[in-house]
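debug: dumping io for the single-chain case to check the tokenizer round-trip. Nothing else runs in this session.
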Amino acid sequence: MALYMRARAAEKAARDEAVRVVSQWNASLAAGQGTLWSPTIRAAILAAMPWLDVYCPGCRTSRAIDIRTVDRHPLASVGSLVLGLRCSWCPGSAPIPVITGLHAFPPAASRNQSIG
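debug: decoded output
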């Protein structure tokens, strides 16, 4: 029983740390500060914030990507994902997308819930 309780405490500590890291990164992005780091995919999933919001400066649209479906190592940084992204709506050579944050739900779903 003690071993189980220690394991649960360790899981909670890891989850709390992941939430802190992802929240700090989101706050930095929202403040318009270019960050020199980004959380790992594993941290985003542990924090229950697997939805990556990406903005395309070419067509000025945003899309949400569920990083649980991306085939990358869990210790890869979320920021490294932008290198493999291109907007399918932009013709020709689309600009590199801009990551705007990680969320628990797709950002469009969150906006719809707050309106309705």
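debug: round-trip ok. The CA atoms of residues 109 and 115 lie 10 Å apart.
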